[in-house]
Amino acid sequence: MEREVAIIAYAQTPYEADANASREMQVLQVAKAALEAVGLKQEDRYTVITANNDYLDGRTISNMRLVEPAAAWHKNESKVEMDGAYAAIYGLMRILSGDHDVALIIGESQASVYARWIPGIMMFDPTFDRQRWLLNEVSAAALQARAYMNAFGVSEEQIAGVAAKNLDNASRNPLAFNKLAGASSEKVLSSRKLYEPITELMVAPYCDGACALVLAAGEMAKKAEKPVWIKGVGFAHDSYLTERPLEEMTSLKMAAEKAYAMAGIKDPVSQVDLAEVHENFAHEELMGYEALGFCGRGEGGAFFDSGATKRDGKLPVNASGGAIGANVVCATGLARIIEAAIQIRGEAGERQIPGVKTAVATGQTGPCAQESVVFVLGGE
Question: Is the pTM of this model over 0.85?
Protein backbone atom coordinates (compact mmCIF):
# COMPACT_ATOMS: atom_id res chain seq x y z
CA MET A 1 0.00 0.00 0.00
CA GLU A 2 1.24 3.48 -0.87
CA ARG A 3 0.12 4.88 2.49
CA GLU A 4 0.59 3.20 5.85
CA VAL A 5 -2.78 2.93 7.58
CA ALA A 6 -3.37 1.92 11.18
CA ILE A 7 -6.19 1.10 13.54
CA ILE A 8 -5.78 3.69 16.28
CA ALA A 9 -8.97 3.24 18.33
CA TYR A 10 -11.96 0.96 18.73
CA ALA A 11 -15.08 0.51 20.82
CA GLN A 12 -17.67 -2.20 21.30
CA THR A 13 -20.97 -2.45 23.11
CA PRO A 14 -21.75 -5.61 25.04
CA TYR A 15 -23.34 -8.10 22.65
CA GLU A 16 -26.75 -9.16 23.95
CA ALA A 17 -29.81 -11.13 22.95
CA ASP A 18 -31.88 -8.02 23.67
CA ALA A 19 -29.96 -4.82 24.33
CA ASN A 20 -33.06 -2.91 25.44
CA ALA A 21 -31.69 0.09 23.56
CA SER A 22 -32.21 1.53 20.10
CA ARG A 23 -29.62 0.96 17.40
CA GLU A 24 -29.14 4.74 17.33
CA MET A 25 -28.10 4.78 20.98
CA GLN A 26 -25.73 1.86 20.49
CA VAL A 27 -24.13 3.56 17.50
CA LEU A 28 -23.81 6.80 19.48
CA GLN A 29 -22.10 4.90 22.30
CA VAL A 30 -19.39 3.32 20.15
CA ALA A 31 -18.85 6.34 17.89
CA LYS A 32 -18.39 8.64 20.88
CA ALA A 33 -16.04 6.22 22.65
CA ALA A 34 -13.88 5.56 19.58
CA LEU A 35 -13.48 9.24 18.71
CA GLU A 36 -12.79 10.28 22.30
CA ALA A 37 -10.11 7.58 22.60
CA VAL A 38 -7.95 9.52 20.12
CA GLY A 39 -9.11 13.04 20.92
CA LEU A 40 -11.22 13.57 17.80
CA LYS A 41 -14.19 15.92 17.90
CA GLN A 42 -17.21 16.21 15.65
CA GLU A 43 -15.81 19.32 13.99
CA ASP A 44 -12.62 17.51 12.96
CA ARG A 45 -12.25 16.21 9.39
CA TYR A 46 -12.87 12.50 8.90
CA THR A 47 -15.02 10.22 6.78
CA VAL A 48 -17.66 7.88 8.20
CA ILE A 49 -18.66 4.45 6.88
CA THR A 50 -21.46 2.45 8.48
CA ALA A 51 -22.45 -1.17 7.91
CA ASN A 52 -26.17 -1.84 8.17
CA ASN A 53 -28.88 -3.47 6.11
CA ASP A 54 -32.28 -2.29 4.89
CA TYR A 55 -33.90 -5.71 5.31
CA LEU A 56 -32.59 -6.12 8.84
CA ASP A 57 -33.40 -2.57 9.92
CA GLY A 58 -36.84 -2.76 8.34
CA ARG A 59 -36.51 0.50 6.42
CA THR A 60 -35.02 1.80 3.21
CA ILE A 61 -31.88 3.92 3.38
CA SER A 62 -31.29 2.34 6.79
CA ASN A 63 -28.40 4.65 7.66
CA MET A 64 -30.57 7.77 7.39
CA ARG A 65 -31.20 7.93 11.14
CA LEU A 66 -27.59 7.11 12.00
CA VAL A 67 -25.99 10.27 10.61
CA GLU A 68 -26.18 12.18 13.89
CA PRO A 69 -25.35 9.35 16.33
CA ALA A 70 -22.50 8.21 14.05
CA ALA A 71 -20.91 11.68 14.30
CA ALA A 72 -21.38 12.02 10.54
CA TRP A 73 -23.20 15.36 10.43
CA HIS A 74 -21.65 17.47 7.64
CA LYS A 75 -19.20 14.64 6.92
CA ASN A 76 -18.40 12.53 3.89
CA GLU A 77 -20.61 9.60 4.90
CA SER A 78 -21.66 6.35 3.27
CA LYS A 79 -22.65 2.79 4.14
CA VAL A 80 -22.28 -0.78 3.00
CA GLU A 81 -25.10 -3.33 3.13
CA MET A 82 -22.73 -6.18 3.96
CA ASP A 83 -20.50 -7.27 6.81
CA GLY A 84 -18.61 -4.59 8.69
CA ALA A 85 -15.29 -5.89 7.38
CA TYR A 86 -16.36 -4.48 4.00
CA ALA A 87 -16.98 -1.12 5.65
CA ALA A 88 -13.40 -1.27 6.91
CA ILE A 89 -12.18 -1.85 3.35
CA TYR A 90 -14.31 1.05 2.12
CA GLY A 91 -12.81 3.35 4.76
CA LEU A 92 -9.32 2.08 3.99
CA MET A 93 -9.80 2.86 0.30
CA ARG A 94 -10.93 6.40 1.09
CA ILE A 95 -7.74 6.93 3.07
CA LEU A 96 -5.55 5.34 0.38
CA SER A 97 -7.14 7.68 -2.17
CA GLY A 98 -5.55 10.59 -0.34
CA ASP A 99 -8.89 12.33 0.15
CA HIS A 100 -8.96 11.54 3.88
CA ASP A 101 -6.49 10.79 6.64
CA VAL A 102 -9.02 9.46 9.16
CA ALA A 103 -12.03 7.16 8.84
CA LEU A 104 -14.60 6.13 11.44
CA ILE A 105 -16.04 2.68 10.71
CA ILE A 106 -19.20 1.47 12.46
CA GLY A 107 -21.15 -1.79 12.27
CA GLU A 108 -24.49 -2.43 13.96
CA SER A 109 -27.54 -4.63 14.04
CA GLN A 110 -30.48 -5.31 16.35
CA ALA A 111 -31.60 -8.87 15.82
CA SER A 112 -34.01 -8.74 18.74
CA VAL A 113 -36.51 -6.81 16.61
CA TYR A 114 -36.77 -9.17 13.62
CA ALA A 115 -37.42 -12.84 12.97
CA ARG A 116 -34.03 -14.48 13.27
CA TRP A 117 -33.52 -16.15 9.89
CA ILE A 118 -36.34 -14.69 7.80
CA PRO A 119 -34.49 -11.63 6.36
CA GLY A 120 -31.66 -13.86 5.12
CA ILE A 121 -34.05 -15.55 2.70
CA MET A 122 -33.88 -12.38 0.63
CA MET A 123 -30.29 -13.32 -0.30
CA PHE A 124 -31.45 -16.31 -2.32
CA ASP A 125 -32.39 -16.62 -5.99
CA PRO A 126 -35.72 -14.74 -6.32
CA THR A 127 -37.07 -16.81 -9.21
CA PHE A 128 -36.75 -20.24 -7.57
CA ASP A 129 -35.07 -20.64 -4.17
CA ARG A 130 -36.67 -17.70 -2.43
CA GLN A 131 -40.21 -18.56 -3.50
CA ARG A 132 -39.97 -22.21 -2.45
CA TRP A 133 -38.79 -21.33 1.10
CA LEU A 134 -36.63 -24.45 1.32
CA LEU A 135 -33.34 -22.62 1.61
CA ASN A 136 -32.45 -20.28 4.42
CA GLU A 137 -29.11 -19.49 6.03
CA VAL A 138 -29.19 -22.59 8.23
CA SER A 139 -30.44 -25.12 5.68
CA ALA A 140 -27.91 -23.82 3.14
CA ALA A 141 -25.15 -24.14 5.75
CA ALA A 142 -26.30 -27.71 6.44
CA LEU A 143 -25.78 -28.54 2.75
CA GLN A 144 -22.35 -26.92 2.97
CA ALA A 145 -21.44 -28.88 6.10
CA ARG A 146 -22.54 -32.20 4.62
CA ALA A 147 -20.66 -31.53 1.37
CA TYR A 148 -17.51 -30.80 3.37
CA MET A 149 -17.95 -33.85 5.61
CA ASN A 150 -18.55 -36.18 2.67
CA ALA A 151 -15.62 -34.84 0.68
CA PHE A 152 -12.99 -35.08 3.42
CA GLY A 153 -14.29 -37.45 6.11
CA VAL A 154 -14.82 -34.72 8.69
CA SER A 155 -16.91 -35.91 11.64
CA GLU A 156 -19.73 -34.31 13.58
CA GLU A 157 -17.53 -34.63 16.67
CA GLN A 158 -14.85 -32.45 15.09
CA ILE A 159 -17.40 -29.80 14.14
CA ALA A 160 -18.88 -29.94 17.63
CA GLY A 161 -15.36 -29.59 19.03
CA VAL A 162 -14.94 -26.25 17.28
CA ALA A 163 -18.22 -25.00 18.73
CA ALA A 164 -17.21 -26.19 22.20
CA LYS A 165 -13.83 -24.44 21.92
CA ASN A 166 -15.43 -21.15 20.93
CA LEU A 167 -18.16 -21.33 23.56
CA ASP A 168 -15.50 -21.90 26.21
CA ASN A 169 -13.34 -19.07 24.81
CA ALA A 170 -16.37 -16.78 24.90
CA SER A 171 -16.69 -17.39 28.64
CA ARG A 172 -13.51 -15.27 29.03
CA ASN A 173 -14.94 -12.44 26.93
CA PRO A 174 -17.11 -10.04 28.96
CA LEU A 175 -18.72 -8.69 25.75
CA ALA A 176 -19.89 -12.06 24.41
CA PHE A 177 -23.37 -13.33 25.22
CA ASN A 178 -23.30 -16.93 23.96
CA LYS A 179 -20.81 -18.56 26.29
CA LEU A 180 -20.36 -21.83 28.10
CA ALA A 181 -17.29 -22.43 30.24
CA GLY A 182 -15.99 -25.97 29.90
CA ALA A 183 -18.23 -26.73 26.91
CA SER A 184 -17.81 -30.20 25.43
CA SER A 185 -18.47 -31.84 22.08
CA GLU A 186 -21.08 -34.01 23.75
CA LYS A 187 -22.94 -30.95 25.01
CA VAL A 188 -22.92 -29.43 21.52
CA LEU A 189 -24.10 -32.63 19.85
CA SER A 190 -26.92 -33.07 22.36
CA SER A 191 -28.34 -29.61 21.67
CA ARG A 192 -31.44 -29.25 19.52
CA LYS A 193 -31.00 -30.42 15.93
CA LEU A 194 -31.86 -27.71 13.41
CA TYR A 195 -30.94 -29.15 10.02
CA GLU A 196 -28.86 -32.30 9.76
CA PRO A 197 -25.98 -32.20 10.77
CA ILE A 198 -26.23 -28.77 12.43
CA THR A 199 -27.27 -28.47 16.06
CA GLU A 200 -28.23 -25.28 17.84
CA LEU A 201 -24.88 -24.85 19.61
CA MET A 202 -23.01 -25.10 16.27
CA VAL A 203 -24.70 -21.89 15.11
CA ALA A 204 -23.50 -18.33 15.66
CA PRO A 205 -26.72 -16.81 17.05
CA TYR A 206 -27.78 -13.35 15.99
CA CYS A 207 -27.71 -10.67 18.68
CA ASP A 208 -27.82 -6.90 19.31
CA GLY A 209 -24.82 -4.64 19.40
CA ALA A 210 -22.49 -2.22 17.67
CA CYS A 211 -18.78 -1.69 17.27
CA ALA A 212 -16.53 0.98 15.79
CA LEU A 213 -12.93 1.53 14.87
CA VAL A 214 -10.86 4.50 13.73
CA LEU A 215 -8.45 4.15 10.83
CA ALA A 216 -5.75 6.75 10.27
CA ALA A 217 -2.74 7.53 8.11
CA GLY A 218 -0.07 10.21 8.25
CA GLU A 219 0.72 12.09 11.45
CA MET A 220 -2.46 10.93 13.17
CA ALA A 221 -1.34 7.32 12.84
CA LYS A 222 2.29 7.97 13.73
CA LYS A 223 1.38 9.84 16.91
CA ALA A 224 -1.19 7.29 18.06
CA GLU A 225 -0.57 5.15 21.12
CA LYS A 226 -0.01 1.51 20.08
CA PRO A 227 -1.20 1.74 16.46
CA VAL A 228 -2.10 -1.56 14.80
CA TRP A 229 -0.99 -1.42 11.18
CA ILE A 230 -2.91 -2.89 8.27
CA LYS A 231 -0.26 -5.02 6.56
CA GLY A 232 -2.47 -6.62 3.94
CA VAL A 233 -6.07 -6.88 2.83
CA GLY A 234 -7.96 -8.97 0.31
CA PHE A 235 -11.55 -9.61 -0.68
CA ALA A 236 -13.24 -11.89 -3.17
CA HIS A 237 -16.74 -12.73 -4.41
CA ASP A 238 -17.69 -16.27 -5.39
CA SER A 239 -20.56 -17.64 -7.46
CA TYR A 240 -24.03 -18.32 -6.09
CA LEU A 241 -24.15 -21.41 -3.88
CA THR A 242 -25.76 -23.65 -6.52
CA GLU A 243 -22.97 -22.81 -8.98
CA ARG A 244 -19.87 -23.58 -6.91
CA PRO A 245 -18.42 -26.47 -4.92
CA LEU A 246 -19.60 -26.15 -1.34
CA GLU A 247 -16.87 -28.31 0.19
CA GLU A 248 -14.40 -25.42 0.17
CA MET A 249 -14.41 -21.67 0.82
CA THR A 250 -13.06 -20.42 -2.47
CA SER A 251 -13.77 -16.74 -1.81
CA LEU A 252 -11.91 -16.88 1.52
CA LYS A 253 -8.97 -18.63 -0.12
CA MET A 254 -8.73 -16.00 -2.85
CA ALA A 255 -9.06 -13.15 -0.36
CA ALA A 256 -6.35 -14.66 1.86
CA GLU A 257 -3.95 -15.06 -1.04
CA LYS A 258 -4.33 -11.36 -1.90
CA ALA A 259 -3.88 -10.25 1.72
CA TYR A 260 -0.87 -12.51 2.28
CA ALA A 261 0.83 -11.30 -0.90
CA MET A 262 0.42 -7.69 0.23
CA ALA A 263 1.65 -8.47 3.75
CA GLY A 264 4.56 -10.70 2.70
CA ILE A 265 3.08 -13.76 4.39
CA LYS A 266 4.43 -16.92 2.76
CA ASP A 267 3.93 -19.44 5.56
CA PRO A 268 0.83 -18.48 7.57
CA VAL A 269 1.29 -21.13 10.26
CA SER A 270 4.72 -19.79 11.23
CA GLN A 271 4.12 -16.09 10.51
CA VAL A 272 0.63 -15.61 12.00
CA ASP A 273 0.24 -15.62 15.79
CA LEU A 274 -3.55 -15.55 16.03
CA ALA A 275 -6.65 -15.58 13.83
CA GLU A 276 -10.15 -14.23 14.33
CA VAL A 277 -12.30 -16.12 11.84
CA HIS A 278 -15.89 -15.17 11.05
CA GLU A 279 -17.61 -18.54 11.40
CA ASN A 280 -21.38 -18.33 11.11
CA PHE A 281 -21.41 -22.09 11.75
CA ALA A 282 -18.82 -24.25 13.47
CA HIS A 283 -17.90 -26.24 10.37
CA GLU A 284 -16.93 -23.00 8.61
CA GLU A 285 -14.02 -22.55 11.00
CA LEU A 286 -12.62 -25.92 9.92
CA MET A 287 -13.05 -24.89 6.29
CA GLY A 288 -11.42 -21.57 7.15
CA TYR A 289 -8.25 -23.28 8.37
CA GLU A 290 -7.80 -24.68 4.88
CA ALA A 291 -8.75 -21.51 3.00
CA LEU A 292 -6.39 -19.42 5.14
CA GLY A 293 -3.50 -21.78 4.44
CA PHE A 294 -3.13 -23.03 8.01
CA CYS A 295 -3.31 -26.59 6.67
CA GLY A 296 -3.82 -28.42 3.40
CA ARG A 297 -7.08 -29.00 1.56
CA GLY A 298 -9.25 -31.46 3.48
CA GLU A 299 -7.01 -31.29 6.57
CA GLY A 300 -9.11 -28.91 8.67
CA GLY A 301 -10.37 -31.65 10.97
CA ALA A 302 -6.91 -33.05 11.57
CA PHE A 303 -5.51 -29.55 12.16
CA PHE A 304 -8.18 -28.96 14.79
CA ASP A 305 -7.49 -32.35 16.42
CA SER A 306 -3.81 -31.40 16.73
CA GLY A 307 -4.77 -28.70 19.24
CA ALA A 308 -3.12 -25.98 17.15
CA THR A 309 -6.13 -23.65 17.28
CA LYS A 310 -6.76 -23.83 21.03
CA ARG A 311 -5.81 -20.96 23.31
CA ASP A 312 -2.49 -22.62 24.11
CA GLY A 313 -1.91 -23.92 20.58
CA LYS A 314 0.59 -22.68 18.02
CA LEU A 315 -2.09 -20.67 16.18
CA PRO A 316 -5.07 -19.81 18.39
CA VAL A 317 -8.29 -19.19 16.47
CA ASN A 318 -11.22 -17.19 17.86
CA ALA A 319 -9.83 -16.57 21.32
CA SER A 320 -12.71 -14.11 21.70
CA GLY A 321 -15.32 -16.81 21.09
CA GLY A 322 -15.71 -15.77 17.46
CA ALA A 323 -19.10 -15.30 15.87
CA ILE A 324 -20.40 -18.24 17.91
CA GLY A 325 -19.79 -16.08 20.98
CA ALA A 326 -21.54 -13.05 19.46
CA ASN A 327 -22.90 -12.61 15.95
CA VAL A 328 -24.06 -9.07 15.20
CA VAL A 329 -25.02 -9.11 11.54
CA CYS A 330 -23.24 -6.26 9.71
CA ALA A 331 -20.73 -6.00 12.57
CA THR A 332 -19.35 -9.51 13.09
CA GLY A 333 -16.40 -9.20 10.69
CA LEU A 334 -15.61 -5.73 12.02
CA ALA A 335 -15.60 -7.20 15.53
CA ARG A 336 -13.11 -9.83 14.34
CA ILE A 337 -10.79 -7.04 13.17
CA ILE A 338 -11.19 -5.24 16.48
CA GLU A 339 -10.55 -8.42 18.49
CA ALA A 340 -7.37 -9.08 16.49
CA ALA A 341 -6.22 -5.51 17.14
CA ILE A 342 -7.00 -5.86 20.85
CA GLN A 343 -4.78 -8.95 21.00
CA ILE A 344 -1.90 -7.19 19.24
CA ARG A 345 -2.17 -4.27 21.65
CA GLY A 346 -2.23 -6.67 24.61
CA GLU A 347 -5.55 -5.32 25.88
CA ALA A 348 -7.65 -8.50 25.78
CA GLY A 349 -7.68 -9.16 29.51
CA GLU A 350 -8.61 -12.71 30.42
CA ARG A 351 -8.84 -13.70 26.77
CA GLN A 352 -5.34 -12.39 25.95
CA ILE A 353 -2.97 -14.68 24.06
CA PRO A 354 0.69 -13.96 24.91
CA GLY A 355 3.05 -12.60 22.27
CA VAL A 356 0.62 -11.71 19.46
CA LYS A 357 2.42 -9.56 16.89
CA THR A 358 0.71 -10.58 13.65
CA ALA A 359 -2.96 -11.50 13.40
CA VAL A 360 -5.46 -12.37 10.69
CA ALA A 361 -9.13 -11.34 10.80
CA THR A 362 -11.86 -12.37 8.38
CA GLY A 363 -15.38 -11.31 7.50
CA GLN A 364 -18.01 -12.85 5.26
CA THR A 365 -21.39 -12.19 3.75
CA GLY A 366 -23.79 -14.02 1.47
CA PRO A 367 -25.00 -17.64 1.57
CA CYS A 368 -22.28 -20.11 2.57
CA ALA A 369 -19.59 -17.42 2.68
CA GLN A 370 -20.15 -16.30 -0.88
CA GLU A 371 -18.04 -13.19 -0.25
CA SER A 372 -15.02 -12.93 2.04
CA VAL A 373 -12.63 -10.35 3.43
CA VAL A 374 -9.22 -10.93 5.01
CA PHE A 375 -7.14 -8.42 6.99
CA VAL A 376 -3.55 -9.00 8.10
CA LEU A 377 -2.67 -6.80 11.07
CA GLY A 378 0.62 -6.11 12.81
CA GLY A 379 1.99 -4.08 15.71
CA GLU A 380 4.91 -1.66 15.74
Answer: yes
